[in-house]
Amino acid sequence: MKHLVFVFSFLLLIGCTEEKQNLTPDEPGEVQVITGDITDMSKDIFYGYSSKGEHIVKYAPDGEENATTRAVGAVVTAKSTPYGSIGLNMIEKKLGKSYVVKCAPCHDDYANGVIGPSLLDKDDKQIYQMITKYRKNEEKNTLMQRFVNKMTDEEIREIAVRIKEFNDEVKRSGL
């Protein structure tokens, strides 16, 4: 018992003899501002912004895309998006020009839906039927009706097949 009291007293004395730390801050320092040239990004032919306000890199600044600029864009996209595991060939095609111009504003570049419904779980027959319903006025969506009425059956089928092929690629990649 004497040993226990002795150890407890010793620990109490050690705990009480600690030095108090100075908690006041040091003198404030100075901030140096380094001036440099201001870069006007609006004149840069390689950088810009999409209609959604997203930063984009232009691989064909003169507007002329070719196989090389599409391939470079596909590689960069593949490495910087969640679609990176999808084959570069599919990203490079981006479901075709007709899809990008007529469908992507509502269904997004990868058919995953933004304003319009997602098309990722649909096959070509379902997509074709969905689109042609607007031609028959079975679905009430003025914008879709206007787009569909200007499209040929062949163009509708081509878009539906491209979306199905893209969906198959997504399923194979495990996304």
Automatic annotation (TrEMBL):
Keyword hit for Heme: yes
Classification via InterPro entries: Cyt_c-like_dom, Cyt_c-like_dom_sf
Database matches in Pfam families: Cytochrome_CBB3 (PF13442)
Keywords: Heme, Iron, Metal-binding
GO MF, one annotated term: heme binding
Keyword set includes Transcription: no
Chain ranges of the Cytochrome c domain: 91-167
Database matches in PROSITE patterns: CYTC, PROKAR_LIPOPROTEIN
Name recorded for this polypeptide: Cytochrome c domain-containing protein
Organism: Denitrovibrio acetiphilus (strain DSM 12809 / NBRC 114555 / N2460)
